[in-house]
Structure formats: structure tokens, C-alpha cells
Amino acid sequence: MLLRNRLLSPQITSFLSLSSSPPLKIQPFTLSFRTLISNPTHRNPTPNRHVSASKATANTAIFDKTLLFIPPGVDPAEVTENMVLSGSNIVLGPYAGDAKIKEVEFVKSSARAKDCPKHDRPEFAILGRSNVGKSSLINALVRKKDVALTSKKPGKTKLINHFLVNKSWYFVDLPGYGFAKAPEAARMDWSAFTKGFFLNRDTLVAVLLLVDASVPPQKIDLDCANWLGRNNIPMTFVFTKCDKMKASKGKRPDENLRDFQQFIQENYRVQPPWIMTSSVTGFGRDELLLHMSQLRNYWDQ
């Protein structure tokens, strides 16, 4: 059994199955407690903490427990508003730990999933449509301007790029999908190439699926999310470009976010975790890293 299944329960594996019938009653999005019960030697969780709202933008998460991501070690009945990370539906639980990034180094670019570094450290894959702001988000998270430039060099854009963080876990930078200038055949090759990584990577903790909040919901993003869900691959929606609250054309980002979340509520059995970010203002950076820390620490116990 793949290690990522430690983060899954039957309730989670069905959350991204598109419903062909009327929407089901939404249940809390929780992680299995089976490992916690069966492993008495696991590390002691850290206490819950309050995360203050960022001044960059208002917290749009509505406090509705049925729409929250509830991590291991948290009793849904005891969730309070101050446990929800700003600009998200994510509850901060006892496995959240030190989220600071102290160092990051480029390790390797791989042409095939089987060529990726072999190790037992947790990985977070970063995936999104072209021009979604993936490189900007990576650089904002590590607070360096040129970390993700490695993947922009000629010949690198179609490769799997591994970055080692704090010598203990990895960012995996994947090529953007849906690039308009590529022929259909190239898109299909890319799809098979990337899916091979997801299906054969035991160390994958979760996929950060980046969605551009400055444009209306895109079918290609929804199709990607649906594929990940059907293959039991944990993911978090990361909405980018949330600083652009004034729209030059069409709807504002907050309206696009509402439309995207409405689609999820109407068509998916359980909401996945989601969070708003801005690489320009830094909004959501610390909250996203805290969310990743609790997934990573639970996985790594």
C-alpha cells in the first residue's frame, strides 16, 4: 500500500468523485485516526494555536464546520473559529509544527518519474495551469527570488524538478499544463508523463493544485482535480493572485473564488482543503506552510 494512503480514509477518497445525482450532504473533511490509534509511539502533538488574520485581505472562509478541512488530532465538535487559518477552510491541528523554511537547494531535474530522486522524505508536488503563478509562489514560500528559475531554463520546463527544503522534505515543481502554444500530441505526452509521477510516488504527501483566482473557473483545472480525486491522491487547492481584487475584465478574484467553491459544493461529496494566496503581498504564505507542516508531520511520524 502506498504511504500516501496513511492520509486517506474512504470518506476522503470519494470527495472528488463528481456526483451524477443530486448533491449529497457535505460531511467534515477529515483524516483517518487509524494510524494514531495503532501507533502508540508517535510524537506528542503540539498545542493548537490561533492564527491571526492577515491585513492583506479579509478572511472569506465562512465558519461552517461541514465545509472545513479537519486534520488529525482534532475533534470536529471542538473546532472553533480561531482554529481556522486565515483565508482558507483549513483547521490548524496539533500536528502543525515549525513551518519556517531555513534553506532550500535544487537537487535534480528528471525526465521520467522513475528517474526522480529515491528517498524516504515527504514531498509536496506543485501543479497548475501555465501562467498560474507557480514559480512566483515557490519563490514567495522560500523567500528567494530565483529558486524556481532553474525550471525555467531551456529544456527544463517539461521536467520534474526536486528542491530539498531544510534537508528534510521536498518541493516538487511540475510543468504547467494547458499551455496554449503546444500541439495536442505534446499535451497528451505531458499528461501521461505527469500522471506517471503521481501514480508511482510513495513519498508524495499531497498535491498543491494552483488555481488562478483572477480568471473564472477553468474546465481544465476542474478536470485535473477530478482525476487526482479519482486516483486517491490528496490535494489542496491553492488560489493564486488573490491580491488583484479589482478586475480589469470580467469578475473580481473574490467572485471567481465564490464561483469555484460553489461548483465544489454542488458537485463534490466533501470539500477539499483550500487556501487563498498572493505572491505579491505574501498573503497566505505562513498559513500554507503551517498547513503543509501538519500534513508532513503526521505523514512522517
TrEMBL record:
Lineage top rank: taxon: Eukaryota
Keyword Coiled coil: no
GO MF term list: GTP binding; metal ion binding
Keyword field: GTP-binding, Magnesium, Metal-binding, Nucleotide-binding
CDD domains: YihA_EngB
Organism (species): Prunus dulcis (Almond)
Protein name: PREDICTED: GTP-binding
A Pfam cross-reference name: MMR_HSR1
Family recorded in the similarity comment: Belongs to the TRAFAC class TrmE-Era-EngA-EngB-Septin-like GTPase superfamily. EngB GTPase family.
Record carries keyword Acetylation: no
Domain EngB-type G: 120-298
